[in-house]
Design a protein that fits this description.
By secondary structure, this protein is of the alpha/beta class. It folds into two domains: about 180 residues, 3-Layer(aba) Sandwich (Glycerol-3-phosphate (1)-acyltransferase), CATH 3.40.1130.10; about 280 residues, Gcn5-related N-acetyltransferase (GNAT) (Aminopeptidase, 3-Layer(aba) Sandwich), CATH 3.40.630. Helices cover about 40% and strands about 20% of the residues. The protein has 23 helices and 17 strands. It has an eight-stranded mixed sheet with strand order 10-11-12-13-14-15-17-16, sandwiched between helices. A seven-stranded mixed sheet has the order 1-9-8-2-5-3-4, with helices on both faces. It has a two-stranded antiparallel ribbon with strand order 6-7.
C-alpha cells in the first residue's frame, strides 16, 4: 500500500545509486513515516478501496469531525463545484473532508500530492499534482478539468501544504491560483470550507527551525491525532458570477477568498456574494407515490409518463419541482438564489409533469392555471403574470378564455432528449380535454447571462415582428435599450421575417449565444398574427432576467402543429 522503497524509486531514483547513504535514509524514513503501521493496516484490510478505505482509516485513528446540519445543507448535491479548504493538520483533515462530501454526493475527488498517490487504495478518489518533485503535468491538469467537465465535485487545498504557526495563528501559507483558474475555466461555483484542528507544538517549532523536517513529521503528527475531533464549517456557495465579475487581479481575488474562508471559521460575515445551496432531492419512493396520485395524460414513445398534478399540502412533488426549477434556472444564469424556486402561486396552480419511470425523476414541468377563474376569484393580482405586467380585465380580452403558462423547465440531465417537446404534447392533450381555452399566455425569459447586445437584438427582433397593433405599455419594470434604435434598425430589413430571422441567428452566434428555446417554440406555433409579445419586463427577483409577455391564439395554430400536438398525438 505504502512503501518507502517505492516512493524513493519513483521520485528520488538517484538516491538508490548511493548504497550506504540510501540504506540509512530508508531506515530513518521507514521509522519516521510509520511504514510498518501502514503495512499492517494494508494486510488487515487488503480488500478496501476508495471511500471504504477512507472510513476505515478514520476509524483506525478514532478520528471524527462535527458539522452542523445547516452547514451540511450548503454542499450542492449535484453539479460541478470546486471545494476549497484550509489544511490545518495536513493528513486526516483531508480524509475527513472527503468523507463528509461523499456523504452528500459520491462523485467527489480530491486534488492530492504525489506522496499521497503512493497510497494505492486511495487512488480512485485522487487527482494527482506534483508537489514534491516539480510542477504538475498537462495530464494532471487534464484529469482535473475532466472531472469538472463531468459535473463532479473537486476538493482543492489552495496552499498545497499544511498550515503553520504564524503571527495571526495557525494559518495556511500563500494560496496558489490553480483553484481559481480551474473554476473560472468551467464557470464552476466555489464552496469554501474551514477546517479546525492543529498539530503538536513540536511540529510548529520544527517548522520554524527546519521546514523540510516538519514536513517529514506530518505522518507522525497523524498518529498524534488519535481520538481527536475537529470542527468543520461550510460556507455558502459562491457562484461563478460573484467572483468572475470582480474588477481586481487574480492575486487580490485569491487573497479575498482566503480571508472569506477564515471569516467562516471565526463565525463572521462572508465577504464575497453567495447564494443558498439548492435543497436536497426528495426521497424517490415518496416522489413516485405522490406523482402517481396525479392524472396521467399519456406516455411518450420512450416510456416517460405525463401527469397533471393538483397541489396538495406538504407535497414532495411540489418541493421537488421547486428544487429542480432552481437547479435548471441557475444552470442558465437565472434562478431565485433560494433553496427552492417556489412561490404562493404554486399552491393553487396545476403542474404538468414529465416523469421518468425508470430513474424516478421529474424530467421537466410546466405550471398553468385557468386565468378566467383566477381573475373572477382573486382579480388579476392572483395571476403570476400580474406580478410582472400591468393587466386589466377590461383591456386584456385574452384572460377570460386564457390558460396562463409559465415556470417551465427541463432539468439539465434531460436536455437534448425531446423533453420540452414531450411537455408540449401534454399541453396539447390538456387543451383537447379543455377546449374552451383559446389563448395561451405567460412570461418567457431571456437570461441575464446573455450578453447585453444579444438581449437587445432579441427584444428588438421580437418587438419588430410580434408586437400587437396597439402598442400599450404593460411592463411594471420596462426593459430599456442602451443604444439608439437606429443602430438596431439597420441590422434588419423589417419586411422579410425569414431573412431577418437568419440574420438574428448569425448575429447571436457571433456573440456566442443562441435564441432561447421557448421563443423559437412559441413563435413557430401559429400562422402570422397568432403570436404576439405584448411587452418586455425586467424581473429583479429572478436574477434580472427579461420576461416577454407572449400570447398564443390557438385558433391560429398552424395545421401541422395542431396535428402534431392535438389531433395526432404520439401519447399513448
Amino acid at each position: 500500500m505504502f512503501s518507502i522503497d517505492q516512493v524513493i524509486a519513483e521520485h528520488y531514483p538517484a538516491l538508490n545509486k548511493r548504497k550506504y547513504t540510501s540504506s540509512l535514509v530508508k531506515w530513518l524514513l521507514k521509522r519516521a513515516l510509520h511504514e510498518q503501521a501502514f503495512i499492517d493496516f494494508a494486510d488487515e484490510y487488503p480488500h478496501l478501496k476508495g471511500i471504504e478505505f477512507v472510513e476505515q482509516a478514520l476509524e483506525y485513528f478514532s478520528f471524527s469531525y462535527t458539522v452542523s446540519d445547516r452547514d451540511r445543507e450548503n454542499i450542492p448535491p449535484t453539479g460541478k463545484v470546486v471545494i476549497i479548504a484550509n489544511h490545518p493538520i495536513g493528513s486526516l483533515d483531508g480524509l475527513a473532508l472527503l468523507k463528509l462530501i461523499h456523504e452528500v454526493r459520491s462523485d467527489v475527488k480530491v486534488v492530492a500530492n504525489d506522496l499521497l498517490m503512493s497510497v494505492e487504495p486511495l487512488q480512485p478518489l485522487l487527482l494527482p499534482v506534483r508537489v514534491l518533485t516539480g510542477s504538475s503535468t498537462k495530464e494532471h491538469i487534464r484529469r482535473i478539468n475532466h472531472s469538472l467537465d463531468n459535473e463532479e465535485a473537486v476538493i482543492m487545498f489552495p496552499s498545497g501544504e499544511v498550515s503553520r504557526l504564524r503571527l495571526d495563528g495557525i494559518r495556511d501559507g500563500i494560496w496558489h491560483q490553480g483553484f481559481l483558474k480551474m473554476a473560472e475555466r468551467v464557470k464552476a461555483p466555489i464552496l469554501p470550507v474551514h477546517i479546525g484542528g492543529h498539530n503538536s507544538p513540536s511540529f510548529y517549532l520544527a517548522s520554524l527551525v527546519a521546514k523540510p523536517l516538519s514536513t517529514l513529521m506530518l505522518v507522525g503528527q497523524m498518529f498524534n491525532q488519535r481520538e481527536k475531533q475537529i470542527s468543520i464549517k461550510i460556507g455558502s456557495i459562491i457562484p461563478y458570477d460573484s467572483y468572475h465579475r470582480l474588477q481586481i487581479r487574480n492575486k487580490e481575488k485569491i487573497e479575498l477568498f482566503k480571508r472569506h474562508l477564515y471569516r467562516i471559521g471565526a463565525g463572521k460575515s462572508e465577504l464575497l456574494a453567495t447564494e443558498k445551496a439548492i435543497a436536497r432531492p426528495e426521497r424517490k419512493t415518496d416522489l413516485k407515490k405522490a406523482v402517481c396520485e396525479g392524472t396521467m395524460l399519456g406516455r411518450t414513445p420512450d416510456g416517460k409518463a405525463i401527469y397533471l398534478f393538483e397541489t396538495v399540502q406538504s407535497s414532495p412533488v411540489l418541493r421537488e419541482i421547486g428544487r429542480l426549477r432552481e437547479l435548471s434556472f441557475r444552470a442558465v444564469g437565472e434562478g431565485t438564489g433560494r433553496r427552492r424556486d417556489l412561490d404562493h402561486f404554486d399552491h393553487y396552480y396545476q403542474h404538468l409533469i414529465l416523469w421518468d419511470e425508470d430513474d424516478l425523476e421529474i424530467a421537466g414541468a410546466y405550471r398553468f392555471v385557468d386565468a378566467g377563474k383566477v381573475v373572477a376569484d382573486k382579480g388579476v393580482e392572483g395571476l403570476y403574470t400580474g406580478s410582472l405586467f400591468k393587466l386589466e380585465a377590461n383591456r386584456s380580452g385574452f384572460l377570460e378564455n386564457g390558460l396562463e403558462l409559465g415556470r417551465s423547465f427541463v432539468q439539465p440531465c434531460y436536455w437534448g432528449k425531446r423533453s420540452l417537446d414531450y411537455l408540449w404534447y401534454g399541453i396539447g392533450a390538456y387543451l383537447v380535454n379543455n377546449s374552451r381555452f383559446r389563448y395561451l399566455f405567460g412570461p418567457v425569459s431571456i437570461s441575464n447571462a446573455q450578453p447585453g447586445m444579444a438581449k437587445e437584438l432579441l427584444i428588438y427582433f421580437y418587438k419588430l415582428y410580434f408586437s400587437p397593433d396597439s402598442r400599450l405599455s404593460y411592463s411594471r419594470n420596462p426593459f430599456s435599450f442602451s443604444q439608439p434604435m437606429t443602430a438596431l434598425e439597420k441590422e434588419f430589413c423589417g419586411t422579410d421575417y425569414k431573412a431577418d430571422f437568419k440574420k438574428l441567428k448569425s448575429l447571436l452566434a457571433n456573440l456566442g449565444t443562441t435564441i432561447p428555446p421557448l421563443y423559437k417554440q412559441y413563435t413557430e406555433l401559429c400562422e402570422p398574427g397568432g403570436v404576439v409579445f405584448l411587452d418586455f419586463n425586467i424581473d429583479p427577483a429572478f436574477n434580472d432576467c427579461v420576461d416577454g409577455l407572449v400570447i398564443v391564439d390557438t385558433k391560429k395554430l398552424k395545421e401541422m402543429k395542431r396535428k402534431r400536438y392535438m389531433d395526432e398525438t404520439i401519447l399513448v
